[in-house]
Amino acid sequence: MLLKDNYAGFRSDVDLVVDAPDCDAFRKLMSDYGAVENRFGGYALSTEWKADVWLLPRTWAHVAGYRQVAQLGDLLETTFFNWDAILYSLTKKKIMYKEGYLDNLDKRVLDINLEQNPNRVGSCVRTLRAVLTWGGIITPRLAQFAVEVIDEVGANTLLQAEKHSFKHRHILSAPIIEEASDVFQKAVYDDTLSKPLRAAAPGAQWQLPFYKEYTKKNHYAL
């Protein structure tokens, strides 16, 4: 089946957020599952996929003081990318996202949702990979961010960061980063969306089964 094949090819991270108090019982539960606390306050599970479990009040943006996270919908304001600002409520069985989310996704427009983050180099690497892999076009704000990081740390640091995070799935190279820097600088200068990179090979997006019918009944556009 298509779904089974998609699951087998899934390579991204899974973030699970639990609305529960930070208590000994929760920490014991994580320990029983073999989870290890990471440096950002989440718990990394040992699974086939890379999965982290977060307590709602301990999500990074809230702890760092950049966003107030009191309820599930507040999480939509805490992601670095606009593409990541979507969640599924297991209790309500609803997809939640902000107005305009699907339109930006359909047009492959990648933007910053919350600029403050604990890993600027990693966010720049993900920006470059999204532009290459999915043919993403980025906003001047994100272009400015990427140019600043490229100038600050250099191509070699970005390449090493990609190899560390993506192991044998790295796709960046020094010439690609140089081209991206030029394209992004022009987007900043012209105050417009970036143009696609010559090396970009847009990947196919998975279509949700019964997508049109599902989104009419089972989503909140906040």
Would you kindly provide a written description of the structure presented here, covering whatever features stand out?
The protein is built from nine helices and nine strands. It starts with a helix and ends with a strand. The chain is an alpha/beta fold. The strands form three sheets. It has a four-stranded mixed β-sheet with strand order 1-4-3-2, with no helix packed on it. Strands 5-6-9 form a three-stranded mixed β-sheet. Helices cover 41% and strands 15% of the residues. The protein is globular.
Features:
globular, 41% helix, four-stranded mixed sheet, 222 residues, alpha/beta
Structural class: alpha/beta
Rg of Cα set: 18 Å
DSSP strand tally: 9
**What is the H/E order?**
HEHEEEHEEHEHEHHHHE
* Order of strands, widest sheet: 1-4-3-2
Fraction in beta strands = 5-15%
What's the mean pLDDT score? 85
Report the uncertain regions: none
Described by strand count, sense and barrel closure, the largest sheet is: 4 strands, mixed
Count of discrete alpha- or pi-helical segments spanning 4 or more residues: 9
Based on Cα principal axes, name the global outline: globular
Instruction: Give the terminus-to-terminus CA distance.
Output: 33 Å
Q: State the helical fraction.
A: 40-55%
How would you summarize what this structure contains?
The chain is of the alpha/beta class and about 220 residues long.
List the helices and strands and how they pair.
Blueprint: H1 2-8, E1 13-18, H2 24-32, E2 36-37, E3 43-46, E4 50-55, H3 60-63, E5 86-89, E6 94-97, H4 101-107, E7 109-110, H5 120-134, E8 137-138, H6 140-153, H7 155-166, H8 174-190, H9 211-217, E9 219-221
Parallel strand pairs: 1-4, 6-9, 7-8
Antiparallel strand pairs: 2-3, 3-4, 5-6
Helix pairs in contact: 5-6, 5-7, 6-8
